[in-house]
Amino acid sequence: MNKSSPNNTVASIRALNVSFSNGKKNVQVLYDIGFDIYKNEILAVVGESGSGKSVTSKALMGLLPSQTAQVTAQELTLQGKDLLPLKDGEWSRFRGSEISMIFQEPMSSLNPTITCGNQVAEVLQQHQNSSSAPSKKEVLRLFEKVKLPTPEITFSKYPHEISGGQMQRVMIAMAIACKPALLIADEPTTALDVTVQKEIILLLKELQKEYGMSILFISHDLSLVQSIADRIIVMYQGRIVEQGTAKAIFDHPKETYTRALIASRPSTKKRLQKLPTINDFIENSVSDEVITKEQREESHQRIYQTLPLLQVIDVVKDYPLKKRLFSKQKYFRAVNGVSFNLYPGESLGLVGESGCGKSTLGDLILRLKEVTSGSIIYREQDITHLSGLPMRKLRKEIQIIFQDPFASLNPRLTVGQSIIEPMKWHGIGKNNSDRKEKVLNLLKRVGLTEEHYNRYPHEFSGGQRQRIGIARTVALEPKLIICDESVSALDISVQAQVLNLLNEFKKDFGFSYLFISHDLAVVKYFCDQVIVMNEGKIEEKNEADALYANPQSAYTKKLIAAIPK
After folding, report:
1. DSSP string, 379-412
2. Distances from the Cα of 145 to the Cα of 103, 177, 389, angstroms
3. How many Cβ atoms from other residues are within 10 Å of residue 557's Cβ?
4. Does residue 201 have a pLDDT over 70?
5. What are phi and psi of 470, to 5 degrees?
6. Of 420, 427, 509, 552, which one's alpha carbon is 20 to 30 angstroms from that of 285?
7. β-sheet bridge partners, residue 46
8. How many C-beta neighbours within 10 Å does residue 565 have?
9. Distances (CA, A) of 104 to 101, 116, 162, 190, 491
10. What pLDDT score does 199 carry?
11. What does the DSSP 8-state code read for residue 344?
12. 48 three-class SS
């Protein structure tokens, strides 16, 4: 059957426009969106934050707020049913049975007070009038289907008692419980480890084949959707700029924006001096200059001839587990005998899956947590148990760029105040006007403007907030910066901008980085050497290119195999 025939269409969108009213004016966010979703296909919608991907899917789900959203369309149908006139009661019967959704953040989508099994059973009882015993049987079957370990035990667990990947599987089980015609997956793998991400992608493909349902897969990562999508729609600033088969989009992208999205992700085959950004493509100023093998070897020779900046020696971190009456205290070992050196001007990568101990190790180096045993030497001084004034001085030298810049910025302080406050505390700058001048120069340096100085964090995008976080860190003139998943939540193109910025600062100020991430492709591009951690221990350590080309351990091989090609 011809896929594009009317009988083979699950959903149709024609001339969809969406505006939001803030009381004073209407802001249009979608402009004449139009596409079909065919039976038994995976259609991917890609684009940066704010491109309108999620708003489009929420219009299909009837999830846009009726008080503030104005939705118009020539056609908005699912299974031939007109969705525009549906009211709340009709939507609640329609959602789950005909159309369902997997959200980006399962922890905030699952009810923390209800066990995982009962949450899925509730969907079956609501839509299929199923009683308790058959519901439980069906939930256990679904848990097996989504490859949850020990379905019986998981049924009785609460969301906080299982991992992020397992929570996402519970969400998938809930979404497919009533065998919907259309499943919307909104960034379902963004917060997950690369290995778990690969498992979820394969699982969705399997379920789509078995159930014969259609999937609308929303993502900002073009290289990820290449492995799952039949067709791809590219969105930019509320408009569709290009659509076609996955092969056509990747082999012959027509639009500048599409080419920019494909090129922004670091390549595992070559190392560019500067990652291309959307602006580079728009301004036709893309540089294809690469860092040669000889240049890299020369740089490494210079770095590793010096004394280490940081020495981590046999560090252990234990956490006490809940103690039972009359029993001996037991511990969980998060970091298990880790040793390594980090050199001035080096970018050292630290990779591994969630729970491997990499962030805990970062906290130990920052002295945010106490070491159980072992020692940490910084600039030939033992800082393992440092306190008081010496510790305060050390805080200036070792800084961190967090994963979530919004949570690390005080919402009551303007950007200027947020950067100046720690500068005052550490005595940087002669006076307030000198400090302000430094901050204004820094804002320009990170790609912001002087007028951003008096704005508040909520007025910025995620990528801009991360730049503010970098400016605040750089303002303290540190020697060592710990980047804890500091680019993992960013759009691919924004990630490229931030990586370029970090490289620039390393070159200009001689910073050293401990770059913590679960994304091996980014780490390979950015780092000189890479440490792979697994279950609290170092699995292997090598020069970034050598580790990628010739991984020694089975665990590292698994991580590399999971990178979207």
Report:
1. TTEE-TT--HHHHHHHHHHEEEE-S-HHHHS-TT
2. 19, 11, 57
3. 12
4. yes
5. -65, -45
6. 509
7. 219, 234
8. 9
9. 10, 17, 17, 7, 14
10. 85
11. T
12. coil
Can you tell me the distance from the alpha carbon of 155 to that of 173, in angstroms, rounded to the nearest whole number? 12
- 192: tokens are 């997950």
**Cβ atoms 193, 518 nearer than 8 A:** yes
Nearest residue to 134 via CA among 149, 116, 153, 120: 120
With residues binned 3-state (H G I as helix, E B as strand, rest as coil), the percentages for the chain, rounded to 5, are: 40, 25, 35
Q: Averaged over 290-308, what is the pLDDT?
A: 94
User: Strand order of the sheet with strand 398-401?
Assistant: 398-401, 480-484, 512-517, 347-351, 529-534, 537-543
Quick check: 152 and 97 in contact, CB under 8 A? Answer: no
6 Cβ contact list (under 8 Å, min separation 6): none
pLDDT exceeds 60 at position 5: no
pLDDT grade for 131, boundaries at 50, 70 and 90: low
Most confident of 199-213, 279-293, 331-345: 331-345
Specify which residues 342 forms β-bridges with: 310
Q: Which two tokens stand for residue 335?
A: 């970091």
The SS3 assignment for 45 reads: strand
**What is the structure's pLDDT at 1?**
41
Q: What are phi and psi of 235, to 5 degrees?
A: -115, 145
Question: 222, 237 in Cβ contact below 8 A?
Answer: no
